[in-house]
């Protein structure tokens, strides 16, 4: 069975997923594309033999659309996701699930009312081979109960439009989801430290930041976010348990010895770092849709990320320890 | 465009390629399957909605077969490959291309007469990300002209039917092809050293072996083959050039610290080590067939491997340095 | 010239330094030893052909003592160091310099009045080859201005008498001194996070702890202290600068591949980790005494460590961010 | 007890050992120095408060010389070593023990006649922490019976006077001794492969060379010697046993991430690589002299190295496999 996918939003990430669905993923084809820029939608659709449609609702309603992929800009996500739920169609939504916790909650309510999971949120790190191997080690009990996680998220540079709150919403949000998933635990409070700023940044930006989270079980998580580190795109993660530690591997690369150094590359682009994770993510989503059982990051995960990010931004501005207000996960998302 | 593939040989590797073409590779479907065991062909074909046919020739001739994949046992390869060439259809042949140099040469003659490349041989290491990164370093000139390559090919164990000549034909053949490709050079002689045998082997087997090759340009290649090393499946390769060295990376894996050790896994199965290389190999083959331009390992590479393996086996038995007899590569395969 | 050393305190660390001065260090001999346990002093002295004396003052005053090494218990340090200053003799004092900031200040005053440096404090990590290489990288400008330092200090286990404040005074004190030295910067505030406690500890102990320091220049330092980590003695340090990072190397050790793992040892004992640093430390001290110019960690460094530790312990108890109260370093210690 | 050492030969390595004995090694002092250049002897002696003497025999005979260190040029070694044996004094001789196998045998005969070991040969790699840790792993049985050893010995460049035979006598001689010691086995034959020469060399020199040794137990050893590798001084060694492998560690060094690379230094100078090994070697020799029991590399090891080097040079010139002619080790050297 081939899964027919309708795509809402044909920007950079949307076009990339269209390419992925057409040339890499097995068992899927893109049948409909829409975008606020109709020409862009037409062009992307034509490239893969799909139709372009005028609105997201038309995509959702199309008879030849089995599942919906939402890659529009963040504020438009909730409407499309709610529309897909109303139509009873599986929907993959790039992060954020919605730009407000309130909208996230509406989605949770609608999906719960529908009675089974339809929504998957695009936290692709859960599909990275390195993180998966880390989780396997943690779950095996080899390092004992996790007590601490140390993370670093470094980008070479960011453009001027990147502001201090994006360090949470666009950058640390990946660590926030990943740590919740690695530990099977919830983040209950946030604090942000603001080190001396690098001189390689735009004036308005607090860079780096150190974010400190506490989980419901009492584990402590520190996340260094440093988005103008100059030297590369570098993702680090170490979990420390009662009896051992496990560290996320760097990407495999040949070691060269020349000119007095032994060296290997540091990646420069997040797309290179997580290209395979995206491929696996979408393949598994397509497979799960075909099997009738969506199982990736859920609406609850999208909601939790939104709550934690909001608390973290407040922590950045106030300097205080801020509660995330997250209560128990509903049984529906257990 | 979807490439319709007919598969000749539905054993372990054939069934694996059928699965790969159906569930991983994009842009292909299996339409016909044959095997000397008709039940097996029927079963594998049914699993992916393909027809089973009685003979390889029927598969080659089928109207809904655009390209042929040969995964029968070695002695049957030549006939199917020659049949596909006669039909003017692209054919992917698992190694060996043929079991005699003479048959390899017949294939080269037929393909050359046809006028453009149709044959690709299944040397999948050229599609491994680590080897590709190594080749990129070598081609960049960063280590200067290559002078030596040190290789090791270790398997945890082999079954009793594995005999001393298979160390060349089934095991070192991968290094033989890879080194030719990494260096862009030809192997002109072979010598085999026979170290003290491991006690963890069947009586009849010389294990380990050290194979010494010389290239046309004078580079020296040593290949340790050790197929009962017990500890894992471990592939090592280091190229030494005039100004530097480059080493094949080990697969990325988390480092665990526990119980007084820092450690990571060594793979146990060659399928785990090269699973992605197989996926990439078949995807690129399908893409090249769709684009009308086969470009992977050629009939010449299959022939050269056969000639080098023959010389190497003679070297094993005689203890002498044996010439491979390889002359210049025909312009057709440049 | 041979430096004659008098040793005050012949406990474990004192006896170890006596051995070091006698059998490893060049250009020194131990001539006098004292201890509150006279038998112990006699035994240690006899082992190296030295005299045992009744009191520290006798050691300080002895004509055949050129320099004094203080390895008594902490509360007795100040008296011996002040005595050596009064006698105008160089004195090496194991950490802490004194158990109160007030006593540290008396030593600073006495040494300053004397007019040139006589005191060296036993912060041996400054003599570790790995930390020295890290400092060289930082000082070279290769990673730019340091913005953050991430440290971990892990011991396999601690005895029952180890209590929560010792995580600062006995454990993190090393990171506190090392970071001040690596950065050439002062620590101005401290905060302590208390993760979920490991179950592998005595009841009274908060283990692990995460200590957060800020420097005068605004760099942020986090130190994980985990003294019952079970798996080994593991010291980690990474400095993050404006343009790059540098990481403390693990001790060199052979990598073994066996039984499906590649692995190396994690040390179990801090003495193994820093044995060479102790040797270098004492050798350089002896050399500096012979050259008439003491230059290692100073009384000011001992005082600063005391002030920072006091603030950190307060931070542990209050949960607040506590100022260390450290003002500018006197010119005498520049 | 202080060991009084007389030094014969005050060239670069001799002067270095004089410095080592005076400023690093504990329990020794240099009392007498000689050199064919009397001014040089006087200068080196004066620097450490020793006498300079006119001849090696005077040094050997001096009443204040307990032990002799021979660092003259190779052809003069045998005379000094034989003189020391005649005087019944322990003697440390830098490699080679003698420049002919015949002279080595005279030394063995004289030492055997004397009745207990007096001679230690300067194979300092046995004192390197990395090789010692490797040997510990091998001796523990963790990798099973060793079957192969792969070595590489690379220097950045060599001066014009370095010729092809020196690749054996001055370079590979270290691997030859180290492998004999690691395996506790004897080398019985040699073969040399001559790869394409690097263009970064003087005309007369075959560089690189690959040396192939077989041991009495049937283990195979390959040694890549490449003395103009440009990029650094790089020593590699991997032992492969029946159940596992162990690899010599690279020197510990901080990893820097900057400008798109993660990198660490490759040493440039053999003195940096083995500085500590030299210190340990001489310290242990001094300790063994003081204890009356010389135990390092023996005259037999010096003789075996000479025999193997001679065979290897013949192998280089003939292209043949050459027997080393080594018979059983005498009981005296067991």
Number of strands of chain A: 15
Strand order of the largest sheet of chain A: 12-11-7-10-9-8-15
Instruction: Give the amount of beta strand of chain A, in percent.
Output: 15-25%
How far the N terminus sits from the C terminus of chain A, by CA atoms, comes to 29 Å
Going by CATH, the homologous superfamily of the largest domain in chain A would be Dihydrodipicolinate Reductase, domain 2
The total number of structural domains of chain A is 2
What is the largest interface, and how many residues per chain?
Answer: B-D, 33 and 32 residues
What does this structure look like?
4 copies of one chain form a homotetramer. Chain A folds into 2 domains: 3-121, NAD(P)-binding Rossmann-like Domain (Rossmann fold, 3-Layer(aba) Sandwich); 126-269 and 304-333, 2-Layer Sandwich (Dihydrodipicolinate Reductase, domain 2). Chain A is built from 9 helices and 15 strands. Chain A has helices at residues 12-23, 38-47, 56-61, 77-87, 101-114, 129-140, 166-183, 270-291, 299-318; strands at residues 3-8, 28-34, 51-52, 67-70, 91-93, 119-121, 146-154, 187-193, 209-215, 220-226, 234-241, 244-247, 255-258, 261-265, 322-323. Helices cover 37% and strands 23% of the residues of chain A. The model of chain A has no long low-confidence stretch (mean pLDDT 97). By secondary structure, chain A is of the alpha/beta class. In chain A, α4 runs parallel beside α5. The two termini of chain A are 29 Å apart. The A-C interface holds A 144-145, 147-148, 150, 152, 193, 195-196, 198-200, 208, 210, 212, 214, 217-220, 222, 224, 226, 229-231, 234, 240, 242-245 and C 144-145, 147-148, 150, 152, 193, 195-196, 198-200, 208, 210, 212, 214, 217-220, 222, 224, 226, 229-231, 240, 242-245. Chains A, B, C, D: Homotetramer. Chains A, B, C, D: Its EC number is 1.1.1.18. Chains A, B, C, D: InterPro entries: Gfo-Idh-MocA_inositol_DH (IPR050424), Gfo/Idh/MocA-like_OxRdtase_N (IPR000683), GFO_IDH_MocA-like_dom (IPR055170), MI/DCI_dehydrogenase (IPR023794), NAD(P)-bd_dom_sf (IPR036291). Chains A, B, C, D: It is an enzyme of class 1 (oxidoreductase).
């Amino acid at each position: 069975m081939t899964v027919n996918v309708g795509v809402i939003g044909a920007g950079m990430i949307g076009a990339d997923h269209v390419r992925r669905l057409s040339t890499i993923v097995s068992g899927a084809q893109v049948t409909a594309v829409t975008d606020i820029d109709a020409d862009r939608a037409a062009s992307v659709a034509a490239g893969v033999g799909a139709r372009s449609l005028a609105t997201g609702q038309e995509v959702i309603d199309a008879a030849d659309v089995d599942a919906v992929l939402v890659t529009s800009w963040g504020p438009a996500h909730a409407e499309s996701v709610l529309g897909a739920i109303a139509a009873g169609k599986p929907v993959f939504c790039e992060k954020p699930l919605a730009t407000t916790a309130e909208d996230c909650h509406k989605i949770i309510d609608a999906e719960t009312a529908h009675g089974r999971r339809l929504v998957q949120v695009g936290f692709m790190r859960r599909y990275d081979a390195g993180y998966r191997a880390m989780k396997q080690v943690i779950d095996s009990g080899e390092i004992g109960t996790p007590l601490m996680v140390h993370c670093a998220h470094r980008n070479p540079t960011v453009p001027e439009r990147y502001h201090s709150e994006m360090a949470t919403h666009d950058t640390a949000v990946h660590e926030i989801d990943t740590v919740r998933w690695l530990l099977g635990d919830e983040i209950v409070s946030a604090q942000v430290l603001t080190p001396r700023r690098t001189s390689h940044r735009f004036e308005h930006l607090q860079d780096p930041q150190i974010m400190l989270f506490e989980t419901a079980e009492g584990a402590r998580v520190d996340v260094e976010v440093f988005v103008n580190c100059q030297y590369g795109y570098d993702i680090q993660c170490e979990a420390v348990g009662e009896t051992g530690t496990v560290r996320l591997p760097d990407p495999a690369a040949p070691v060269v010895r020349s000119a007095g150094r032994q060296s290997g590359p540091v990646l420069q682009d997040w797309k290179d770092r997580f290209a395979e994770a995206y491929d696996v993510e979408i393949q598994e989503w397509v497979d799960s849709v075909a099997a009738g059982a969506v199982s990736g990051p859920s609406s609850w995960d999208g909601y939790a990320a939104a709550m934690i990010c909001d608390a973290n931004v407040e922590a950045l501005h106030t300097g205080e320890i801020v509660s995330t207000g997250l209560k128990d996960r509903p049984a529906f998302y257990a």
